[in-house]
Design a protein that fits this description.
By secondary structure, this protein is an alpha+beta fold. 41% of the residues lie in helices and 19% in strands. The relative contact order is 0.10.
């Protein structure tokens, strides 16, 4: 029996792309994809949006080649165009970044800090991430089996009436804040629920100044929560922790002390993720 010939990897690719696939030192390269990734990296390193001419100059590309890469990235919302016809990273990358944090097992990474905080404070601690206009609970812990509230891992609650939701929202780029608020349907869960864009923006302003958020019986009567964000290496609020308990335990007088413990824990977690930058939305004032 004769020796079977190996089938080239390019045989399984559409004919239109086989010409752009090469193999160097055992690594397959798709030139158009490599070029697009290089464009993203270049825009990510730039302190300002770049024009087509600047992209061509910095990447040593012909104008038509650079334009094709930019159009593909823009069509997929990986980059966006400014009114001045310049290009910057798009919000789709932010959404993908949030998913990436989950997929590197944020829950496992945070858990040691998380359990220690619950033990130190003797209250229920939650971990969540932002998903559209809601938060998704990733983890929950209490001490001696004591767990407050009806939340469960995998469940969701609205951003606008939860401490973790408001803590993450306050430290988003302006465009993200506006987009989330515009898609929010305000429902009154209790007499204390924030039910308007204006009330929420005022709350976000306070959160940015003090660094943490409070759910003062806004979602569930009898329960008060203090939440703070966790930042990734780019200074984006990609997750949050909250300390929750009955109002008889978490009193207005004890909130400041609880917040100090919570903020210290969130800073430690953020540092362990490689964070050394300031939050991306160090805004100082609310969205108009």
């Amino acid at each position: 029996m004769g020796t079977a010939l190996a089938t080239p990897a390019t045989a399984f690719l559409p004919e239109s792309v086989t010409e752009s696939v090469t193999k160097t030192d055992g690594i397959y390269q798709l030139q158009s994809l490599d070029r697009a990734i290089s464009v993203l990296e270049m825009l990510g390193l730039s302190d300002r949006p770049l024009s087509l001419a600047e992209v061509c100059q910095q990447m040593h590309l012909h104008k038509s080649t650079a334009h094709r890469s930019l159009m593909v990235l823009e069509r997929n919302a990986l980059i966006e165009r400014t009114p001045e016809n310049r290009f910057r990273l798009g919000l789709k990358l932010y959404e993908l970044g949030n998913r990436a944090v989950e997929q590197i097992d944020l829950r496992t990474h945070v858990h040691p800090y998380f359990v220690r905080l619950a033990s130190d404070l003797g209250e229920t601690v939650h971990l969540s991430v932002l998903r559209k206009t809601s938060i998704v609970y990733l983890d929950k812990a209490g001490t001696n089996g004591k767990v407050c509230t009806n939340s469960r891992t995998g469940s969701t609650n609205p951003v606008y009436c939860t401490s973790m939701g408001k803590a993450m929202l306050a430290f988003q780029p302006l465009e993200t804040i506006e987009r989330i608020i515009s898609k929010t349907r305000f429902v009154r869960f209790t007499p204390k629920t924030l039910c308007s864009r204006e009330a929420l923006l005022l709350a976000l302003d306070k959160i940015r100044h003090r660094g943490y958020a409070i759910d003062d019986e806004e979602h569930e009567l009898g329960v008060r929560c203090v939440g703070a964000p966790i930042f990734n290496p780019n200074g984006q609020a990609v997750a949050a922790l909250s300390v929750s308990g009955p109002v008889s335990h978490i009193t207005p007088q004890s909130v400041s002390s609880i917040a100090d413990h919570l903020l210290r824990c969130c800073r430690d977690i953020s540092a362990s993720l490689g964070t050394c930058k300031k939050p991306v939305s160090d805004l100082g004032s609310s969205v108009s």
